[in-house]
Amino acid sequence: MRHLISPLDFSAEELDQLMDLASDIEQNPKKYAHVCDGKKLATLFYEPSTRTRLSFEAAMLNLGGSVIGFASADSSSASKGESVSDTIRIISCYADICAMRHPKEGAPLVASLKSSIPVINAGDGGHQHPTQTLTDLMTIRSLKGRLGNMTVGLCGDLKFGRTVHSLINALVRYEGIRFVLISPRELRVPDYIRDNVLEANHIPYTEVESLDQAMPQLDILYMTRVQRERFFNEEEYIRMKDCYILDKSKMALGKKDMLVLHPLPRVNEISVEVDDDPRAVYFRQVQYGVYVRMALIMTLLEVAPC
Ligand code: NCD
Fold it and tell me: How confident is the model at residue 77 (pLDDT cuts 50, 70, 90)?
């Protein structure tokens, strides 16, 4: 039985197969409408979510399966003190697969050790968010036609942003990837990403504070929100929250074929005037998220169309 806890749980070839499957689902959705008939997905969300939970639910429903679960820790037995290990043993009796989001780093990994059904990490604290990464890779591959040979700018809260950590982990496996890490000094990527992922894989990267200066080099600009819920104090958050605002004048500095991605939700970091720019693909990214999650559920449940 397989789980998806870290983006590295799948090899680059397996990720390619998964994205090929997601593309086929996009082209021929009817072919997949009943592959999960009779199967249940449990969504265990101990932290707020709109896209991730609903995209998992939509994905399972599109495959003919059904969904059970909870959307906040207060409405689960966690509020009575139940451990994640116990909860997953119970859920294993009710469902065939589960997606878990938790504020504590490592919680989905702990769950996977006690689970008799596949566990998908739907975001663990400030650590990883592998299914957002599948979504991001799928978006880049579909709209750029490749995943290597490009300069990727990651901008905003690179310290607490789990989507950034997972994306860096996944992209270093492709040829010719360079990163421009754009953040205030206080929100730079954690040391374990810099040392164990970037340095260890000899990946070219620069750390800069100016988005304007970075703009002309970028093939991909991945914007992120400042992660308010992970700050120790509100004053710090308020000082940082509007550190970058992508607007039309900044977009004018970018390449004609650059793509702007964002895992969403957006707060202030992308001005709404950018939404109409054809390079802004963050709403299309959401749609790719459903196809890759369909492909992921099928892969972990080992189901295929007849
Ligand atoms: C991201 C997350 O939860 O980490 N959201 C998402 O799943 N699309 C990004 C964020 O909350 O900023």
Answer: confident
Is residue 99 within 8 Å of 23, Cβ to Cβ? no
User: Separation of 50 CA from ligand 1 center, angstroms?
Assistant: 9
- Mean pLDDT of the region 42-50: 93
Residue 113, both tokens: 């050790």
Q: Give Cα separations from 195 to 158, 162, 204, 234, 304 (angstroms).
A: 15, 17, 12, 29, 40
What's the pTM? 0.96
52 catalytic per annotation = yes
- Residues with Cβ < 8 Å from 208, sequence gap 6 or more? 180, 181, 182, 214
11 pLDDT band, cuts 50/70/90, is: very high
- Contact status, residue 296 vs residue 134, Cβ threshold 8 Å: yes
Choose one of 45, 52, 100, 222 to mutate for the ligand 1 pocket test, by most ligand atoms within 8 angstroms of C-beta.
52
> What is residue 29's three-state secondary structure?
helix
**170-215 confidence digits (pLDDT tens):** 999 999 999 999 999 999 999 999 999 999 999 999 999 999 999 9
Q: Whose CA is nearest to atom 11 of ligand 1?
A: 265
Which of 104, 57, 96 has the alpha carbon at shortest distance from 78? 104
Cβ < 6 Å from ligand 1: which residues? 51-52, 123, 129, 132, 162-163, 225, 263-265
